[in-house]
Design brief:
It is built from 11 helices and 8 strands. It has 501 residues and is α+β, with helices and mostly antiparallel strands.
């Protein structure tokens, strides 16, 4: 009976060695959310338009794909130049690339655990045998040399798939790093485009402020002349001087923001603030893309690098459950040591000096104070944590797209109203200045007209920039088109020659 049981156990062990199943759950990617659109109401086909530069209507195209170099859609040579320079010099991008290399090398290292290990060992020693004891090495001097050469072969069959689950976990971590690299790439290009738009906006606001300063300076000159003629009181001139000073006071903060924006662009491009940045950004030099690709919600989870990274983290956590289960099961180790030993080096490989040892062992954890059990429970809890983080990432991604779509539609209307407001305010200011010269109205009417025009002019510059910034945000929310990039070099396969370099 005992012999039959031993035979059955041996057959089961051989079968396990041949099949090498992998314990733990087999990972399946989460299904796409059952969502057909980003907003409760259907998305309009296009936005509002305004009769001004950068005021054209934008069309939402569900059948349009996002190019890998999406920033070229703004037709800005300076932006294209800055992005190209930054992709080559930005240190965050270089760090992300190095992190991906680390993750890949860890995968290659873990794959080595599937193969036997082979070590060569050579030992030479000189020994003295105790004189009081008989010596087998001759009746002469008790001093002798001993030379030993041997190979150490060891193999641990991955019977329950613990090693393969470890490899799966590391491969998933490498995928996560790959998409983290894509996220870094997208963040960099989006920040560059956003910073360029912000610089253009600040230049527009500075230009608008300088226009207002010129207008108020001209008005002040007229008022001073009228005071000399006795047509107006000194108090009206002083009030205009105060109004001019208030407008001039708004200029330094805008200039400060512009200088800081230039510092940001220099840093993003891998340089220092002291470096001369030749690229310059103005609203007039940036074209608003007309057609906006809007991916289907079911495609968004494939396009967003943060979602793909979260999915890879989920798979890594799933594989770790298998690793934890395998650690609680028997561990089989096979080893062998062939070699030779002799008293002289030239006799090391003659017949009669060889030896060999073959060893097989099975280790089954019996009691460890619950360590392995609780590690398995921790791995299962980590999987649930990764599941929740994945779902949260998906929800935030859909929110990003919805926010961008609403901003694009709303800011298009805002630009339309800003154009109408600026034109009305300009006409009102011209009429008020004429009536002021004729003495038809008092100074307070002119002051109100100046302030209204100042607000309208600044709002127009901000509204034009907002549409550009909204478009950048949408391209970023949709994933940045990394799947269409042409600048990614194919991964070089690892060969045996690489291992023995």
């Amino acid at each position: 009976m005992m012999r039959r049981e031993l035979q059955g156990a041996a057959i089961a062990l051989i079968g396990a060695l041949l099949t090498q199943c992998a314990v733990g759950p087999d990972f399946a990617p989460p299904a796409a959310p059952d969502v057909t659109r980003y907003t409760p109401e259907p998305l309009a086909k296009s936005t509002a338009s305004a009769a001004t530069a950068g005021g054209g209507a934008q069309r939402f195209a569900g059948d349009l794909d996002l190019p890998g170099q999406w920033w070229t859609l703004f037709h800005s040579k300076d932006l294209n130049s800055l992005v190209e320079k930054s992709l080559a010099a930005n240190q965050d991008l270089k760090a992300a690339q190095a992190a991906l290399t680390v993750a890949k090398q860890n995968v290659y290292a873990q794959r080595g655990a599937l193969f036997p290990t082979l070590d060569a060992n050579y030992t030479a020693s000189r020994q003295v045998a105790p004189i009081s004891e008989p010596s087998d090495f001759g009746a002469g001097s008790p001093t002798f040399n001993l030379f030993t050469a041997q190979l150490n072969v060891a193999y641990a069959p991955d019977v329950f798939g613990g090693v393969r689950r470890s490899i799966e976990s590391l491969e998933a971590q490498a995928d996560s790093q790959r998409f983290a690299l894509e996220a870094t790439y997208l963040t960099l290009t989006s920040n560059l485009a956003g910073a360029a738009v912000q610089e253009a906006s600040l230049r527009g606001q500075i230009a608008a402020t300088q226009t207002i300063i010129k207008i108020e300076t001209d008005v002040l000159g007229v008022m001073r002349h009228q005071r000399e003629l006795g047509d107006i009181a000194e108090g009206d001139v002083v009030a205009q001087e105060a109004a001019l000073a208030q407008v001039e006071q708004t200029l330094p903060p805008l200039q400060k923001q512009l200088a800081q924006q230039r510092d940001l662009l220099a840093a993003l491009s891998g340089g220092f603030p002291s470096d001369l940045l030749k690229e310059r950004f103005d609203l007039a030099a940036m074209r608003l893309p007309r057609d906006l690709p809007v991916s289907l919600p079911s495609k968004l989870i494939e396009q967003r690098p943060d979602i793909r990274a979260a999915e890879a983290n989920l798979q890594s956590a799933s594989a770790q459950i298998g690793v934890a289960i395998a650690n609680r099961l028997p561990n089989i180790t096979l080893s062998g040591n062939p070699g030779a030993t002799a008293l002289a080096m030239n006799q090391l490989f003659v017949p009669g000096t060889e030896f060999w040892v073959i060893t097989g062992s099975v280790t089954q954890p019996i009691f460890d104070g619950g360590t392995l059990f609780f590690r398995e429970q921790a791995a299962k809890a980590a999987f649930k944590q990764a599941q929740a983080q994945y779902r949260s990432t998906v929800i935030v991604a859909f929110q990003n797209v919805a926010d961008s779509l609403r901003a694009i539609q709303s800011d298009a209307i805002a630009l339309q109203k800003a154009v109408a407001s600026e034109r009305a305010a300009a006409r009102g200011l011209d009429i008020t200045r004429q009536r002021m010269q004729l003495g038809d109205i008092n100074y307070l009417g002119l002051l109100n007209a100046q302030q209204t025009y100042q607000t309208a002019l600044l709002s127009l510059a901000q509204a034009r920039a907002a549409r550009l910034a909204d478009t950048v945000a949408l391209f970023q929310a949709l994933g940045g088109g990394w799947w269409n990039r042409q600048d990614v070099e194919p991964e070089k396969p690892v060969t045996i020659g690489d291992v023995f370099q």
